[in-house]
Amino acid sequence: MNIKYLTFILIFLTLHSYCQKKFEKGYFIDIGNHRTDCLIRNDDWKVSPEGFGYKLSQDGETLIAIADSVKEFSIPGSWKFIRVNVKIDRSSMDETNLSAESKPAWSQESLFLKVLIEGKASLYAFADRSNFKLFYSVGDSIQQLIFKEYITADRSIAKNNGFRQQLWLEVNCAHAGMASVENIYYEQNALEKHFKKYNECMGIPFVEYRRPKSKNYIELWVTPGVNTSSLSISDNVSPWRNTDFGQNSSFRIGLGAEFYFLPYNKKSWAVVVEPSYQYFRAAQTINIGNVEINYASIEFPLGIRHYFQVDKQCRLFADVFFVLNAGLNFNSQVTFHYNYAAPVTIRPGNCAAFGGGVTVSKLSLEVRYYMYRNLLTGYDYWASNFHTLSLVAGYRLF
């Protein structure tokens, strides 16, 4: 294996390992009511977990707690889950598979509920791959907020909004009118606001288990790096001019902007635009003389990036790009030093690229592979094969 490629992989794995060591202070209570203070791996749970990783010390081994053996676990201020025995309606939420019955189809189950608001009136959520349900309590009893879509006799979709009556009867300030509940949607943000207003109205402190959403959905990065590129050119009319320039390393510099279009779940998806300057210079001797290439350009990678949250500072990511060359090629050309042969102007085409890396706080490191690109487009007889492997560092400006 090329030693440069091996170095890239080792750096990536080292940073990956560093990120995996980050856990957050928390606790869990087992079914025997024993509390364990520990460090819990924050997996940014979108669904009710079947278990979680924890450590008893920062340098300790990672242990796994199975959900069935836990009554409660929490990362204070961020997350709290409780295990309860409740009635749940698991009627399909898929419009192509709705029930014709308007009433909930109850089943008694032991569930892990995410605590959203904890106070005189508390709000909870349950989610798996096919269901999202909200629960509430005023006192000790936890019940599901009733909402169900169903098919009517004329094949239209109707809604059972029973949760509005539940709110009116049990989670409503004395001075609030019917309008406070009659137009509310069965949606987490809307119901969180309602429960917060109710607790504030009652003058009773409450806890909100939710990280503040970042309002910054755009990030700007400066992205220097090193390219290792290989190039070969071929002349279908005069094959003695075919040249393999081999591999060459060079520096590159870019300015990347990330636009988060799905900012929930810790900003997992982003559109990335990264104008960057790169170059490739090499010389080779063939039978008829010396051949030199001087290629420099500004290219515009446009892509999609997906982040995998490890902890509040560290994320892994994978991305894919379409790379547009804007034609800013700085008089790039292939020069043949024999018999006054005319130089060949470089006309690079577009290409695709994919990569993966890690961010730690304001720093990032990525290994990115640029696939086949023809640098001699528009010629009837010339062709080329250009590949690049990049190690791209990054520093977030804001």
Can you describe what's shown?
By secondary structure, the protein is mainly β. The protein has five helices and 24 strands. The strands form three sheets. Strands 1, 2, 3, 4, 5, 6, 7, 8, 9, 10 and 13 form an eleven-stranded antiparallel beta sheet that branches. Strands 14, 15, 16, 17, 18, 19, 20, 21, 22, 23 and 24 form an eleven-stranded antiparallel beta sheet that branches. The protein has a two-stranded antiparallel ribbon with strand order 11-12. The longest helix has 18 residues, at 3-20. The protein starts with a helix and ends with a strand. The relative contact order is 0.11. The model is unreliable at 3-8 and 13-18 (pLDDT under 50).
Q: What secondary-structure arrangement, pairings included, does this model have?
A:
Layout: H1 3-20, E1 24-30, E2 35-40, E3 51-55, E4 63-66, E5 70-75, E6 79-89, E7 106-118, E8 121-127, E9 132-138, E10 142-144, E11 148-151, E12 157-160, H2 162-170, H3 179-182, H4 188-202, E13 207-208, E14 218-235, E15 243-262, H5 264-267, E16 269-273, E17 276-286, E18 289-309, E19 314-328, E20 333-337, E21 344-345, E22 351-360, E23 363-373, E24 382-396
Antiparallel strand pairs: 1-2, 1-5, 2-3, 3-4, 5-6, 6-7, 7-8, 7-13, 8-9, 9-10, 11-12, 14-15, 14-24, 15-16, 15-17, 16-18, 17-18, 18-19, 18-20, 19-22, 20-21, 22-23, 23-24
Summed up, what is this model?
The chain has 398 residues and is mostly beta strands. The chain is built from five helices and 24 strands. Strands 1, 2, 3, 4, 5, 6, 7, 8, 9, 10 and 13 form an eleven-stranded antiparallel sheet that branches. Strands 14, 15, 16, 17, 18, 19, 20, 21, 22, 23 and 24 form an eleven-stranded antiparallel sheet that branches.
